[in-house]
Amino acid sequence: MSAPTTAPAAPAALPHPAALALDLAGRTAVVTGAAGGIGRACALRLAAAGARVRAVDRAAEGLEELAAGAAGLPGTVEPRLLDLTDLDAAEETAAGADILVNNAGLQLVRPLEDFPPEVFHTVLTVMLEAPFRLIRGALPHMYAQGWGRVVNLSSVHGLRASPFKSAYVAAKHGLEGLSKTAALEGAPHGVTSNCVSPGYVRTPLVERQVADQAAAHGIPEERVLTEILLRDSALKRLVEPEEVAEAVLYLCSPQAAFITGTSLVLDGGWTAH
């Protein structure tokens, strides 16, 4: 008879639920697209947990408002004025980060035959190539310390396509693949990489889509929300930025240490169809 095998030792017991408040004191987080919307909510939530947040955006006024709004939180918010099309600067900005939140994005709604090639290039640069460079810049420090969290703000459009959004859909599908590759490479080093994939979030990016969607589909603007944006969602409302920020924070918690290479979907039942 063969000798009985021994199961691997169980990990140390997690704290009691009453002690699960996440303390990120001493951790440095980089959040891109931090001047508004989801990025702003993530920067404030991470700072509320004690992190030193490098808030990256090209909107100076929004960064100033963010820093003012973070006053009095346990952590800090340091504005970093940066256009992510400067890829070398993006990679340098991520050096030394313990947590990286790739959030910055832009959108244009046009049929493929009318989609400006220069805009397609910019969308892919900001939403796929820049995250690659940011991850590349952050990993050496994460690997050296044996701990790191990469959270990529994807979208339901990283899992499903929609008409008239060729650049955005292509970028988000690519980001999902990049995130999985980072997860596989990072696992031996204590680094997790995941996507958070929400449906339509109440942000300026979504609000600016309404006129374009109305023109593309040939309907009045007041019908866009119910007939286009929320048509496939079981929950008929927009996601709030703060809800997305809580999902991002969870992926940085000890309770999420075994979650990597996947997407946390906040879509109100969209992909259940």
Distance between the termini: 51 Å
Strand content: 5-15%
- Low-pLDDT windows of residues: 1-8
Task: Tell me about the largest β-sheet.
Answer: 7 strands, parallel
Which homologous superfamily in CATH is the superfamily?
NAD(P)-binding Rossmann-like Domain
What is the β-strand count? 7
Q: Per CATH, what is the topology?
A: Rossmann fold
CA-atom Rg in angstroms: 19 Å
As a percent range, the share of helical residues equals 25-40%
Compute the number of structural domains: 1
**Structural class per helix/strand content?**
alpha/beta
Number of helices: 9
Reading off the top of the CATH hierarchy, the class is best stated as Alpha Beta
Strand order of the largest sheet: 3-2-1-4-5-6-7
Shape: globular
Architecture in CATH?
A: 3-Layer(aba) Sandwich
Please state the average pLDDT score. Answer: 92
GO molecular function: 3-hydroxybutyrate dehydrogenase activity
Protein name: 3-hydroxybutyrate dehydrogenase
InterPro entries: 3-OHbutyrate_DH, NAD(P)-bd_dom_sf, Sc_DH/Rdtase_CS, SDR, SDR_fam
Family: Belongs to the short-chain dehydrogenases/reductases (SDR) family.
Topology overview:
Elements: E1 28-32, H1 37-48, E2 52-57, H2 60-69, E3 76-81, H3 87-93, E4 99-102, H4 117-145, E5 148-153, H5 166-186, E6 191-198, H6 204-207, H7 209-217, H8 224-229, H9 241-251, E7 263-266
Parallel strand pairs: 1-2, 1-4, 2-3, 4-5, 5-6, 6-7
Would you mind describing this structure in some detail?
There is one protein chain. By secondary structure, this protein is an alpha/beta fold. It has a single domain, classed as Rossmann fold. The protein contains nine helices and seven strands, in the order E-H-E-H-E-H-E-H-E-H-E-H-H-H-H-E. It has a seven-stranded parallel beta sheet, sandwiched between helices. Helix 5 links the parallel strand 5 and strand 6. The longest helix is centred in the middle third of the chain and has 29 residues. It is globular and about 55 Å long.
